[in-house]
């Protein structure tokens, strides 16, 4: 009888505290009087919470405010961190679902940070996933994993200096464990 093999993830990783701290730094936040306040994600300017919130209204470290959420009085640092940890759970699942090779902690952290910014759908179809999962993969458009990674630098069709900086910071974590 031939052997029966089940392909499964052997290890479920968790986003590290170093990863959380770096993500907080990269996301940034807006505080007034020691509290996190709602802000426009594109401009980082506070928004009037007594009016209908604009698309992209955010609080804490990149938490997109849902219609059912009320943050009129702002939130504490601990609440902002709690929201971030809840929000990154989706990014963690995405990395675990789409990457099928073992990762080091720094590689996992960098990928979670990337997914948090570009989203699950973009990550799932990215050349990054193909390069990581298949060492023999080669893209005509992106000659290396690094070039595929750094290509995620556009906002509204325009190269963004902020995204260039962020992608390079993520790459340094992924490739060199430099947080």
Instruction: Detail the poorly predicted runs.
Output: 1-10
Given this structure, which CATH class is correct? Mainly Alpha
Summarize the helix and strand pattern as letters: HEEEEEHHHHHEEH
The biggest beta sheet is recorded as: 3 strands, antiparallel
The number of domains is 1
CATH fold topology: Lysozyme
Strand line-up of the largest beta sheet = 3-4-5
The count of DSSP E runs of length 2 or more, i.e. the number of strands, is 7
The number of helices is: 7
Work out the radius of gyration.
18 Å
> Structural class per helix/strand content?
mainly alpha
Helix proportion of residues, in percent? 40-55%
Q: Under the CATH scheme, which architecture would be assigned?
A: Orthogonal Bundle
Average pLDDT confidence is 93
- CA-CA gap between termini: 50 Å
Beta-strand residue fraction: 5-15%
Overall shape? globular
Protein model, in words:
The longest helix has 22 residues, at 77-98. The chain has helices spanning 17-27, 77-98, 105-118, 120-124, 127-133, 145-150, 161-176; strands at residues 31-32, 35-36, 39-40, 57-59, 63-64, 154-155, 158-159. Mean pLDDT is 93; it is low at 1-10. The strands form three sheets. Strands 3-4-5 form a three-stranded antiparallel β-sheet. A two-stranded antiparallel ribbon has the order 1-2. The protein has a two-stranded antiparallel ribbon with strand order 6-7. The protein has a single domain, classed as Lysozyme (Orthogonal Bundle), CATH 1.10.530.40. By secondary structure, the protein is mainly alpha-helical.
